[in-house]
Amino acid sequence: MSEKSYVHNAITWAKQRLDELDITISELETSSGNLNDSAREEADRALTRLREARTKLNGYVDDLRLETVAAKQRGEVIQKAIDTEWVEVELAFRDFLSAAKDHADTVRNVVLARARAQHQAWETTLKNLHDQAADVVEKARGDLDAAMRHLTDEAQKFQRRIGEVRDAGDESWSAVKSGLTDVKDVHGHVIQKIKNAFSKLR
Q1: Which UniProt keywords apply (predicted)?
Q2: What does the domain layout of the chain look like in residue ranges?
Q3: Is 59 exposed, middle or buried, given 0-12, 13-18 or 19+ CB atoms closer than 10 A?
Q4: How many other CB atoms are there within 10 angstroms of residue 82's CB atom?
Q5: 117-124: long-range contacts, CB 8 A cutoff, minimum separation 24
Q6: One-character DSSP codes across the chain
Q7: Sign of the C-alpha dihedral, residues 121, 3, 68, 78?
Q8: C-beta of residue 189 within 8 angstroms of C-beta of residue 146
Q9: What Rg, from alpha-carbon coordinates, does the chain have?
Q10: For each of the chain's 202 residues, which pLDDT tens digit applies?
Q11: Residue 201 near residue 134, CB atoms below 8 Å
Q12: What gap in Å lies between CA 50 and CA 19, rounded to an integer?
C-alpha cells in the first residue's frame, strides 16, 4: 500500500474514532446529571480525561493531514519523474521502429512482443491484486466471526450469572466488557485490512 493510501486510511480511521468519542462524550455529559455527588465527581474526572484525549486525537489527525499533503507532494515529484522517463521510453521505441521501417516483419514482431508483454503485466497485476484482496477479506471475516463468537459466549455466561453473587456478576460483566472491547478492536483491524486490500485495486 502506498504511503498516501496509508495516511488517508489512518485519517479515516481516526476520524471515525473521533466521531464515536464525540457521541460518547455527549451521552456521558447528559447521563452524568443523574449521578449522586461522589459518583458525579468520579464521572467528571473521567469526562475531563475523555475531553483531553479528544483534543490530543484532533491534534494527531491534523498531523496526519499534514503528512497527506507532504506525501502528495512527494508522490507528484516522483510521478513527474516517471512520466518524464516514460516519454524517453516511448521516443526510443519510436526511433527503433523508425530505424526498422524497411523491415516490416521486424516491426510487426517488436510491436506484437510489446503488446503481449503489456497484456501479461496487466493480467499478472490484476490477478495478484484480486488474490490478495480475496485472501485478506476471507481472513478478516474469520477474525471477526471468532471475536463475535467469543463475545456471544461471554454474554451468555454473564446472562447465566445475573442471579448469582455480586462478585461473580462483576467478574462476568468485566469479561463481557473485555469481550466487547476485543470485538471492537478486531472489527477495526478487519475493516482496515479490507480497506488496505481494496485500496490496491484503485
Answers
A1: Coiled coil, Plasmid
A2: 1-99, 104-202
A3: exposed
A4: 10
A5: none
A6: --HHHHHHHHHHHHHHHHHHHHHHHHHHHHHHTTS-HHHHHHHHHHHHHHHHHHHHHHHHHHHHHHHHHHHHHHHHHHHHHHHHHHHHHHHHHHHHHHHTTT-HHHHHHHHHHHHHHHHHHHHHHHHHHHHHHHHHHHHHHHHHHHHHHHHHHHHHHHHHHTTS-HHHHHHHHHHHHHHHHHHHHHHHHHHHHHHHHHHTT-
A7: negative
A8: no
A9: 28
A10: 555 566 677 778 888 888 888 888 888 888 888 788 888 888 888 889 999 998 998 898 888 888 778 877 887 888 888 888 878 878 888 888 888 888 888 888 888 888 888 788 778 877 877 777 777 777 777 777 776 777 677 666 666 555 554 445 556 556 656 666 666 666 666 666 666 665 654 4
A11: no
A12: 13
The owner of cell 450469572 is 161
Cell of 106: 521486424
Cell reading at 22: 464525540
Grid cell for residue 169: 456478576
